[in-house]
Amino acid sequence: MYRTHNLGELNKSNIGEEVELAGWIQKTRNLGGMVFIDLRDEFGITQIIINDEELQKQAKELSTESCIHISGKVVERSNKNLKIPTGEIEVVARKIEVLGKCKSVLPFEINTDQDVREDLRLEYRFLDLRNDKLHKTILLRSKILKTIRDKMDELGFSEIQTPILANSSPEGARDYLVPSRLNPGEFYALPQAPQQFKQLLMVSGFNKYYQIAPCFRDEDPRADRAPGEFYQLDFEMSFATQEDVFKVIEEVMTYTYRKFTDWKVDEGPFIKIPYKEAMEKYGIDKPDLRNPLIIQDVSTVFSDTDFNAFKGKIIKMIRVPEGGSQGRKFFDSMTEFAVQECGAKGLAWSKLEEGAFTGGIAKFITEDMKQNLISKFNVAEKDAVFFVADEKLEHAQKIAGLVRIELGKRLDLIEKNVYRFCFIVDFPMYELSEDENGNEKIDFSHNPFSMPQGGLDALNTQNPLDILAYQYDLVCNGYEMASGAVRNHNPEIMVKAFEIAGYSEEDVKTRFGALYNAFQYGTPPHAGAAPGIDRMVMLIADSQNIREVIAFPKNKRARDLLMGAPSKVSEEQLKDVHIKCVLE
After folding, report:
1. Domains of the chain and CATH, by start
2. pLDDT above 80: residue 169
3. 413-428: burial string, b at 16+ Cβ within 10 Å, e else
């Protein structure tokens, strides 16, 4: 037996007991006549005291992070440490056994405030994971997953696994392709999402499906997006409307967040914000509602302006209550941010002081304009106002959205210790994109398998760019947490929807043959969504980096520094799968 107790559970009630303990040496202290070892496992720390001379010699040769087993007796500690659960006792060792030696020089110190380069931490991730905070985060992830599964079971969902080796599908990112040895020249694709499979499960008569699904997308990494692979709570429901899906998300999210945090969590039903309104008020389709600042369109106010930067432009304004107290340096730094970080041509500003606009573009704000801004847009005494002007609506919205976020951060306006949820609804079904020749084309803006609002009639009669879809995102504190949709279950509508995006019926039959065929056999209406597990854990753990909530993440260049992936393979392996590498 290596241990009778975990290292965080011994207390005064165990005094006098003989115990077996095992763990890692966090610290050794040599006080001449006595040697102390802080022994650690994932449950806590216990102080070991060594009086015996032979054991002291053995202990002095052990390096930090060596794994050892000790036998000894629990005694009351003279210098108690009430900051830890085991701080009233210590264990007098009578035997030490080395289970695993550690090198005397570590690549970095464990459980210290030492600033360590991230790539080095990832290269030695097995050591990094011994860090108490990171270790607890991974254990938290495990508990969150169990809670989610328990809640989904309670709500009547059945957990069903779908294939990892699948077919290529237009989910909005590049596929990871897997060559087939048995079928020369053909490839599997790792699923970007289990989209088609979960819809087929609905056709198959399953009522409610879910899984904690691995998804694979060849995308560039970001702080809030893991490169290559991520996990989502994928679920689908037969005979369900958009509101049915919202109720499930609201229940799962509020239950899970409340269980693992003492922060305030929004009650369901969550606020619903149409996509168009979100872009107008927040300049982004994943607004952080903890930020009180709102974007307003003041183009009409400046329709007759003499200010060249505003003439003929779309003008967005952000009013900062009592922001006029900021000095000139602040306004200049915000202008610098807008130009350098947001791609703006400039950032106009002014402030209302003693009934008059001062500073910035004050001289271009006429009396009529001032009264308009005060009466219609609620600009008040001591407020600061920032203006973004651009010929294109989407550019003005985007820049104003980034400026709003930055103002919220710099002025410390973000509400603390709260999770603010909302649904973004009524996404456009289509958007303009560019083909390989740089020509504009109509493409799906979100999920291609979504039901258009208005059905076939809308597809046949409306401008495609005016058609809305039953698509929705869940947003929390400025992060997209889930995407979902009411699915298009009608083959006639499916063919027409893809036709508008440039796919023929034959393309649909070829690329989505399973769905197209299945939809001929009595398909129920169905809807679903897929909250992101990694981001959920990141927010609950109050982490700023998604790699901190994944046991073995890849770095910013999508490389696994621990295992050395991706890596070159032998010519024989390539030959097996009928592949030749052509390197430029």
Report:
1. 12-100 (2.40.50.140), 118-267+524-584 (3.30.930.10), 291-414 (3.30.1360.30)
2. no
3. beeeeebbbbbbbbbb
